[in-house]
Automatic annotation (TrEMBL):
Keywords: Membrane, Transmembrane, Transmembrane helix. Pfam families: ABC2_membrane_3. It is a multi-pass membrane protein. This is ABC transporter permease. It comes from the Bacteria. It is found in: Membrane. It comes from Actinomadura spongiicola. Residues 60-253 form the ABC-2 type transporter transmembrane domain. The keyword Transmembrane helix applies. One of its GO terms (molecular function) is ABC-type transporter activity. GO terms for cellular component: membrane. InterPro entries: ABC-2_transporter, ABC2_TM. The chain crosses the membrane at residues 21-39, 59-78, 98-122, 134-154, 166-185, 236-257. The keyword Ribonucleoprotein does not apply.
């Protein structure tokens, strides 16, 4: 796989994104809106953690839905319907280079969002440097891989780019309501908390909070402090859930992703 070729495709994706105001708002406007929602939560104690920091660390994972998932579903669907994917497949580019360019662009934009949010949490909300930045980055990278894979799946069942904003909604709302973004999942009844931990966003949020605070956010309401090695051990179930979603998403993407419109 030629990384230079992938970057050329990535530049094309960035140009198309810049021309699409709806996509630009989804990637940059909505995260700013959600970041503004942290202000009323500052100073509120939720499970022994400041409410703004708790929700902010949830947003580190939640922004995946805009910058990566929704963005790539729209990009892949639009490119398929205007036959761009078909034309690119007729060039020397490999399939991995064609799709990888879009993923590189989405990942770069998401990385900027994460960096900006971490700075905002530290400067405006009294946050801190992540207790385990490596754990945090690995968890977010796993989230990128899973939601990029799911974007192939949802693009395959999306008839056109205009409907892409609708076909992503079930996953987005499910992750928004049950992914632990607004509050720790251990605050839910056990019969509800355990199933919500199987959603694709839930493990990303749990790993992000554990890596940021240096506390156990998997299955302890008191969120005890953990060391570096203990933090990784605590997050092992979350990594397993991510891996299962990655395997499932890849299997469905191979079956459902399409390079040409159905009528072609």
């Amino acid at each position: 796989m030629n990384f230079t070729a992938m970057l050329r495709v990535s530049r094309l994706d960035l140009t198309l994104l810049w021309r699409n105001r709806t996509a630009m708002f989804s990637v940059f406007g909505l995260p700013l809106l959600f970041a503004g929602m942290l202000v009323p939560m500052k100073g509120q104690d939720i499970g022994g953690v400041d409410g703004a920091l708790l929700q902010g660390t949830g947003h580190l994972g939640f922004f995946l839905l805009f910058a990566v998932f929704m963005n790539l579903v729209t990009v892949f669907t639009a490119r398929r319907e205007d036959l761009t994917l078909k034309r690119l497949r007729g060039t020397a580019l490999s399939d991995a280079e064609i799709t990888g360019g879009g993923i590189v662009t989405a990942t770069a934009m998401y990385a900027l969002q994460v960096l900006a949010l971490v700075v905002v949490l530290g400067v405006a909300f009294g946050g801190r440097f992540p207790a385990d930045p490596v754990l945090l980055l690995v968890g977010l990278a796993g989230g990128v891989a899973v939601f990029a894979t799911l974007s192939f799946v949802i693009s395959g069942i999306t008839p056109n780019a205009e409907l892409a904003q609708l076909t992503v909604l079930p996953i987005m709302f499910g992750c928004m309501l049950g992914g632990g973004v607004m509050f720790p999942m251990d605050a839910l009844p056990d019969w509800l908390a355990q199933p919500t931990r199987l959603l694709p966003l839930s493990p990303v949020v749990e790993i992000s909070r554990t890596g940021y605070f240096g506390q156990d956010f998997y299955d302890h309401g008191a969120h005890p402090s953990v060391g570096v090695l203990e933090g990784w051990r605590t997050c092992l179930p979350s990594f397993i859930v991510l891996a299962v979603w990655g395997v499932l998403g890849r299997s469905l993407a191979i079956r459902w992703f399409r390079w040409e419109p159905r009528h072609a």
